[in-house]
Design goal:
mainly alpha
Length: 109
């Protein structure tokens, strides 16, 4: 159902477990860890697909979260607050942080 643009769903543990076992196209957990299984099967290379994580960032996040955090900050920001959208109780970046962010945003580094 939808109320004021917010969608709600009624879920049950038994319904989720049933879907994990029986759903085909909406079984994201299975599909994530069996990527390409239809092509692999069609080629005669087994029926499991590829289980390896295809994303270096997520592999890095699991094996070295601090490095992943630095990677994320290199394309986002390094401070928890932003000057243009202050939030009570969250510190805004100081002037040096702001200059670094602008330099990064303008691709000047």
């Amino acid at each position: 159902t939808e109320d004021n643009g917010i969608q709600y769903a009624q879920l049950s543990i038994s319904g989720i477990r049933d879907a994990r076992v029986n759903d085909q196209s909406q079984n994201q957990l299975f599909k994530l860890l069996h990527r390409g299984y239809t092509g692999v099967y069609a080629n005669g290379d087994g029926d499991k697909g590829v289980a390896d994580c295809p994303f270096d960032f997520y592999h890095q996040w699991v094996t070295n979260p601090k490095v992943a955090q630095a990677m994320a900050e290199s394309v986002t920001r390094s401070t928890i607050g932003v000057k243009c959208c202050p939030v009570a109780g969250i510190p805004e970046p100081d002037e040096i942080d702001e200059i670094e962010e602008l330099t990064h945003e303008m691709n000047l580094t």
